């Protein structure tokens, strides 16, 4: 039987599309100091390859992989961890197709948290959950992954939030307060440490951000966050886009990274 190598990650599929940039970035940042092999198709896998600790599948369209592909992977690498990162054209696969088990699927735009969780399992830091895990088990894993508390340089960061949806803004405000941050009022927006802005619907809010200069670092929140809108938003200074459907931990990590790198660079170093 193959013995899994903790220092080996296998990426399968077309990882060079715009949608999969976030997946590659997550793998390179999370799985540091390890060997990463990136193969465009399953047939390119060498018969001599060892069992990877983690296999990341990049799925760009629904029928890109078959049920036989999945069965072959499991038979060949029975003790590897699997993450299928799918693009927007695969959104309905959970209802119309069953190639990939629910426990392995995650939208490419929300892949960072899931890849981190799977890598922690590979490294023995977290307990593994089975391929047969249901939605409730997966949700429980996501919401209890780690406590969300901001303590940047011993202070309480000031974060501005803006959304055209009053109830969504209230939810975000309550969330960041629970993390230990302060909500900026209207007069503090330009002096805030960070801004979180609701970018839905992008076609309407795009013009509002076209001429912004000299503002704090910005995180954008989007619903489906299609990759063309993400690319457009970055042109206006949104270095990070977080999907509204992603786990709370993803937004928390994005906020923490932005604060450490942009506001308190000594912490990041």
What is the gist of this entry?
This protein has 269 residues and is α/β, with parallel strands linked by helices.
Low-confidence stretches: 1-5
Q: How are the strands ordered across the major sheet? A: 2-1-3-4-5
Evaluate the radius of gyration: 20 Å
Helical segment count: 10
Portion of residues within helices: 25-40%
The count of DSSP E runs of length 2 or more, i.e. the number of strands, is 10
Please provide a written account of the structure:
The chain is α/β, with parallel strands linked by helices. The protein has 2 domains: 5-143, Response regulator (Rossmann fold, 3-Layer(aba) Sandwich), CATH 3.40.50; 158-268, 3-Layer(aba) Sandwich (Rossmann fold), CATH 3.40.50. It is 33% helix and 20% strand. The strands form 2 sheets. A 5-stranded parallel sheet has the order 2-1-3-4-5, covered by helices on one side. The protein has a 5-stranded parallel sheet with strand order 7-6-8-9-10, with helices on both faces. Strand 1 (5-13), helix 1 and strand 2 form a beta-alpha-beta unit. Helix 1 (21-30) runs parallel beside helix 4 (111-122). The chain is globular.
Keywords:
single chain; 269 residues; alpha/beta; Rossmann fold; 2 domains; five-stranded parallel sheet; 10 helices; 33% helix
Chart the SSEs and their pairings.
Blueprint: E1 5-13, H1 21-30, E2 35-39, E3 52-59, H2 67-76, E4 81-86, H3 93-96, E5 105-107, H4 111-122, H5 135-143, E6 158-162, H6 166-178, E7 182-183, E8 194-198, H7 202-205, E9 218-222, H8 227-234, E10 238-243, H9 248-263, H10 265-268
Helix pairs in contact: 1-4
